Amino acid sequence: MISRPCTVKKTPASANFIVECKGLAREEIGDDCFEYELWARRHWLAENCREFYEVTALRDRGRLVGRKFSFECATEATGFKLSFATRLGPFR
Q: Is residue 53 part of a domain?
């Protein structure tokens, strides 16, 4: 799990704006592609988010199928969603 450290105590409950990224899993897109895609998103988060955010696993029936990005700020969530594909192949 990745979270942005902040000086004000925030909780995952405050991160109400969710962007699901299906396919952002090593098993789905391979090692190299996964590493790059996750790095790009982490870099974007570090550069653009001032409010609390959290990255967690996205599972379907226990199987890892992607990542879930939760934001406290609607503007940051929207900017993130517009910057990246939310579905990565292969599509099943």
A: yes
